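Q: Sequence in, structure out?
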Amino acid sequence: MQDQKQFIDIDGSYGSGGGQIIRTAVGLSAVTGKPCRIFNIRGGRSEPGLKAQHLKGIEAAARLCNARVNGASIGSREVGFMPGKTEAQHLDIDVGTAGSVTLVLQALMIPASRMEKPVEFRIAGGTHVAWSPTTGYFRHVFCECMKLMGLRISSETLRYGYYPKGGGMVKVMVEPCQRLKPVQIEERGGHAVTEAWSNASMELAKAGVGERQIEGAKAAIPINKANMKYVPSASPGSSITIASGFGNCFLGASALGERGKPAEKVGEEAALELRKVLESNATADNHMADQLIPFMALAAGKSSFIAPFLTEHAKSNIWVTEKFLDARFGVEEISGGVRIACG
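A: Exactly. Output:
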């Protein structure tokens, strides 16, 4: 057991006080080799402590870096994470029911970026569920943004998993780079394309849900290319992801179908969210902004981008990242957004 004084202490109730702090902390612990202790886990929430989804993220990160973990159980309010050497080249992970596969990926992508060899993940669970990025957003926004930093990630949704049964699966391949490239993205560059990806379970085909989601999106913003598919799934459901590609950046948004919500409204919801970002001077949407922070700190040099505004998730990620790494962040309000810089 390592000396307790060597542990980096992370107050899990800080800022947004949610699972984001846990995922970033264990990811950075794994990549830096620095042990951490997360206490007051989700202390400000109505049901504090680890939920199943958070536990799966910790377990997956531990498998990736051969970590020893104390206190990893449902309801636990304190976890000790003691990383070893990152060795795993293939991991099969079952989040369970509709637990989000992309939230587990958030914990894994940080250490995977610095692996010595390529790594493959197959993660079963929810691919299009509430309060988390869709696998479409992960592929068409997150992976494209990481490519700008020299990290190549390929992603494929093998099965679609909607709430409540989930049962989906995503395959992700990461080709690590020895050192991430810094990015200074304060201008978007020329607009290349705005593309939409609409999906729905087979039983919703007769009602034309997939097509109607695209129609709703097109009524709110111009879309250059639209993709639509009906898929087998354990639960009925639908989703749409929209992304705008520019010369220097990628901006995206997504929305989920709900019982009683017209499909057109689902498409409109995603499009209006993206339109707000496009009307700002942002070079990263708010979902991408908080995810970029640990990678900026791991890059060799100065990085910066513009977000629409500073979210609680971004504040929390900056706070956690600075606990593990020497990089320091600066946040400055500017016309049409907020500039986040590191270096």
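The CA atoms of residues 15 and 316 lie 6 Å apart.
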